[in-house]
């Protein structure tokens, strides 16, 4: 089975947020005081998340990314991941994490059947890292990354949200990391989420990121895989690792979008920037898997062709990425 939207895009990738809670407070993701937490009964149970995943896979989803908030802070996450990994028809189970708990949990994640990790790492300097994450300890993340490599994960994807005047002086440092390690470093254009009027000052366009690397190194185009979605990949000539840029703001990101999202509260969204989304709780309450599958198909059919955030005159409604699962 395939999920094809009205623009002919094949939707085969589900991003599943399992919690809105987090052990960090990244400046680009949530306000300093955090966001109002969902009540325990508003967060979907693992049972419901599993039912959504099973029906999504039956309808045509091939890859699931578990995200959050910080997925590793939710109790019971390893057992849940093992159950997702066992879904018949699922080709890829991956996880996005800030890496703080990775040192302790890497082996468990591997044993549960997680195939690859995306680790958010926005600075290689302890002070900048602490400033962006509002108190995070860089060394803990670096130790976690090493441990995950040691237990046998394939080369990690490292996500870097680039912000002008904050960490854009480290673009080359991150690029050079791929000369030493086989990581896939992906630069993400900063997206407005917390209602900041000045977001355009912070966003460094993907073309500029690439140009800064190309001025220093010879770069070669690299491929993308069937389910990799909108990242544009390339590498420094001879580097074991690769580079990618996610031009969420300036690029043709939407044309290649293959994603569906479900928030921790059970709201399905065809687009990250879709305001309200569709609450899956009522259909979950019926207990009917067929209705759930039909609802997923309807959401895919209604997926917008593109987001309008960058359009002149369009104001973004503030939202916390930790709620939606970035
Ligand atoms: N806590 C995990 C982490 O940080 O990797 C998973 C959830 S986090 C919301 C998922 C991704 O969203 C991270 O890679 C983060 O960098 C990205 N993200 C959050 N806010 C963003 C923003 N305003 N612009 C671009 N990316 C953002
Ligand atoms: Fe937490 Fe990830 Fe958001 Fe940072 S980006 S506050 S680690 S959910």
UniProtKB/TrEMBL annotation:
One Pfam match: Mob_synth_C
Gene3D superfamilies noted in UniProt: Aldolase class I (3.20.20.70)
Cofactor(s) of this protein: [4Fe-4S] cluster
Function: Catalyzes the cyclization of GTP to (8S)-3',8-cyclo-7,8-dihydroguanosine 5'-triphosphate.
Record EC number: 4.1.99.22
UniProt keyword terms in alphabetical order: 4Fe-4S, GTP-binding, Iron, Iron-sulfur, Lyase, Metal-binding, Molybdenum cofactor biosynthesis, Nucleotide-binding, S-adenosyl-L-methionine
Positions bound to S-adenosyl-L-methionine: 28, 69, 120, 191
Co-factor note (free text): Binds 2 [4Fe-4S] clusters. Binds 1 [4Fe-4S] cluster coordinated with 3 cysteines and an exchangeable S-adenosyl-L-methionine and 1 [4Fe-4S] cluster coordinated with 3 cysteines and the GTP-derived substrate.
Species this chain originates from: Geomonas terrae
Residues engaged in binding [4Fe-4S] cluster 2: 254, 257, 271
GO MF annotation list: 4 iron, 4 sulfur cluster binding; cyclic pyranopterin monophosphate synthase activity; GTP 3',8'-cyclase activity; GTP binding; metal ion binding; S-adenosyl-L-methionine binding
UniProt KW Transmembrane helix keyword: no
Residues given in the record as GTP binding sites: 15, 65, 96, 157, 259-261
Oligomer and partners: Monomer and homodimer.
InterPro entries named among the record's database cross-references: Aldolase_TIM, Elp3/MiaA/NifB-like_rSAM, MoaA, MoaA-like, MoaA_NifB_PqqE_Fe-S-bd_CS, MoaA_twitch, MoCo_biosynth_MoaA/MoaC, rSAM
Name of the protein described by the UniProt record: GTP 3',8-cyclase
GO BP, one annotated term: Mo-molybdopterin cofactor biosynthetic process
Domain of life: Bacteria
UniProt family annotation: Belongs to the radical SAM superfamily. MoaA family.
Residue ranges of the region described as Disordered: 307-326
Pathways per UniProt: Cofactor biosynthesis; molybdopterin biosynthesis
CDD domains named among the record's database cross-references: Radical_SAM, Twitch_MoaA
Residues covered by the Radical SAM core domain: 6-220
Top-level class of the enzyme under EC nomenclature: lyase
Annotated [4Fe-4S] cluster 1 binding sites: 22, 26, 29
Catalyzed reactions: GTP + AH2 + S-adenosyl-L-methionine = (8S)-3',8-cyclo-7,8-dihydroguanosine 5'-triphosphate + 5'-deoxyadenosine + L-methionine + A + H(+)
tRNA-binding recorded as keyword: no
